[in-house]
Fold this sequence. Notes:
The complex is a heterodimer of chains A (232) and B (447).
Chain A: E1 7-20, E2 23-36, E3 40-44, H1 51-58, E4 66-71, E5 74-75, H2 81-90, E6 92-96, H3 107-111, H4 113-117, H5 122-135, H6 151-163, E7 169-173, H7 181-198, E8 201-206, H8 209-212, E9 217-222, E10 225-226
Parallel strand pairs in A: 3-8, 3-9, 6-7, 7-8
Antiparallel strand pairs in A: 1-2, 1-4, 4-5, 9-10
Helix pairs in contact in A: 5-6, 6-7
Chain B: H1 2-15, H2 17-51, E1 60-64, E2 71-72, E3 78-80, H3 91-98, E4 103-112, E5 115-120, E6 126-128, E7 131-134, E8 142-145, E9 156-159, H4 161-166, E10 180-185, H5 203-210, E11 215-224, E12 233-236, H6 237-243, E13 245-250, E14 253-258, H7 259-263, E15 267-272, H8 278-287, E16 291-294, H9 295-338, H10 340-348, H11 353-396, H12 409-435, H13 439-445
Parallel strand pairs in B: 7-12, 9-11
Antiparallel strand pairs in B: 1-15, 1-16, 2-3, 4-7, 4-15, 5-6, 5-10, 8-11, 9-12, 10-11, 13-14
Helix pairs in contact in B: 1-11, 2-9, 2-11, 2-12, 9-10, 9-11, 9-12, 10-13, 11-12
Amino acid sequence: xxxxxxxxxxxxxxxxxxxxxxxxxxxxxxxxxxxxxxxxxxxxxxxxxxxxxxxxxxxxxxxxxxxxxxxxxxxxxxxxxxxxxxxxxxxxxxxxxxxxxxxxxxxxxxxxxxxxxxxxxxxxxxxxxxxxxxxxxxxxxxxxxxxxxxxxxxxxxxxxxxxxxxxxxxxxxxxxxxxxxxxxxxxxxxxxxxxxxxxxxxxxxxxxxxxxxxxxxxxxxxxxxxxxxxxx
Amino acid sequence: xxxxxxxxxxxxxxxxxxxxxxxxxxxxxxxxxxxxxxxxxxxxxxxxxxxxxxxxxxxxxxxxxxxxxxxxxxxxxxxxxxxxxxxxxxxxxxxxxxxxxxxxxxxxxxxxxxxxxxxxxxxxxxxxxxxxxxxxxxxxxxxxxxxxxxxxxxxxxxxxxxxxxxxxxxxxxxxxxxxxxxxxxxxxxxxxxxxxxxxxxxxxxxxxxxxxxxxxxxxxxxxxxxxxxxxxxxxxxxxxxxxxxxxxxxxxxxxxxxxxxxxxxxxxxxxxxxxxxxxxxxxxxxxxxxxxxxxxxxxxxxxxxxxxxxxxxxxxxxxxxxxxxxxxxxxxxxxxxxxxxxxxxxxxxxxxxxxxxxxxxxxxxxxxxxxxxxxxxxxxxxxxxxxxxxxxxxxxxxxxxxxxxxxxxxxxxxxxxxxxxxxxxxxxxxxxxxxxxxxxxxxxxxx
Lengths: 232, 447
């Protein structure tokens, strides 16, 4: 499906190098791509291909060594820590393979984290968190500590948290990696629904070709390089 | 927002409850030591102030029989008088000292060793009698009543302020004036009022007398103000002579030995006309071959003593606080290390570096605050125990000093504030270390 929506994110020739001791490791090399509002985009590649690094750079968690990322035509790498934090807090929702939850917080406390940072009032925080926990079918387990939930339930809590502040893009880094195929499919169904029905941009990082096949577009990475070039 | 930080910090403290508890214990021990050491230092300073409470006492010089005899107790009293090879302190010495330039007053004092203890009318409490004979012109500062009209006022006493305080009459010392006191002498007392055995007494009768005490009655005519005489029971010098005169029955009649006349006075209290002349008068007294201890020199020595006490106690407290702070740093660094992934999660959700720093500083501050509050409580209990023990100990040595550890309210507040602040300062490096972690790496580590 060729996206006809508005351009949301542009990645221009980014590279990312890490130093490990005296060795310089190239995680990404000359990667360019475009992300459109409302599309479901899969970034696929084997382990170590740089797909998580790319997701983190798009999400404002890391900065590229060279190149730039534009969000609404505004470069991310020119933003201060405060501006990048605001970007992550208002525009991006992350879902991680290991759920990225705080185990000694309850489900609702985990979901309210972005709202607390956005200084939303306590009562409203809880109401909004419960609404999204209801959406993922976990309202009744809202006050359970997340370390008492199953893997599938934890990932749904993570998705509720990624949605609670109504971000424009959800970045899901191996969201089914810790789940069995049944729970994995449920999570993928949920992400697909968010994109198709609610118009949220979903960027899925996966090495599972079957999951990737459900996306609007697939970007293949290998050894930090894109397998096919997109034209900016 | 601070409420949110406190809530989040408390969750983390609860998560690592054993480690947090151990850190709090280290903090509370250091706070308790800090409170106790400071309370003792304050108590020591106030003891000096109370011993030399009036400006008049700054001009006082206690003259002793020779230059080697000026040994002082930490509370300002002459502790020991060595009479071998001394210049005897008699009325001639008093007259001679009175002629030294800038001496406004020279008046004798005589320790009365013959008294054991005394009690005051309608009160069962017995006090150790540290009695002194004082001349009627002594110019002792009084809180109530009058001083002796003459040296021959037999059966009159002036009570030290500390006894009034012990009796709960420090606010109304006047109420003690006119009260009778009962003085019990040492065994075998032979002075005025003693029923000495006759010359024909048997050995058994003499032995029984030597094992018996005598009771003397007196009336309180005045109560001293706080100052050098506050721990003493003062009696008129003439009566002191009679008390210290041992009587023996012989077939030829009663024989007397005036021990005070033989030994001389214990001290002669000299008062310089101004504080500026104390040094000159002290030097003149020394040149005349007497020992002397001025109140000023006592204050200097006691201030050196309290300064040394401050330094020692302060060092102990500082070492304890540093050890506790290292404990906080260690706990917080371990927390940061363990919370590696959590920090990344907060950052991914939009937390700024400042948020992470505040989160860890609040946690360190809470550890400090809890340790401070409990530590102050333990410090208060420990101070009371020290007071109980010290007062009992000092009473056994004839001192009526009250609290040795004093806890002003500001100390309690300051101790909690200092411990909390110390906790926060100890949390600075771990908090900064937490905030500068790369969220991308911390999140990848957890994958």
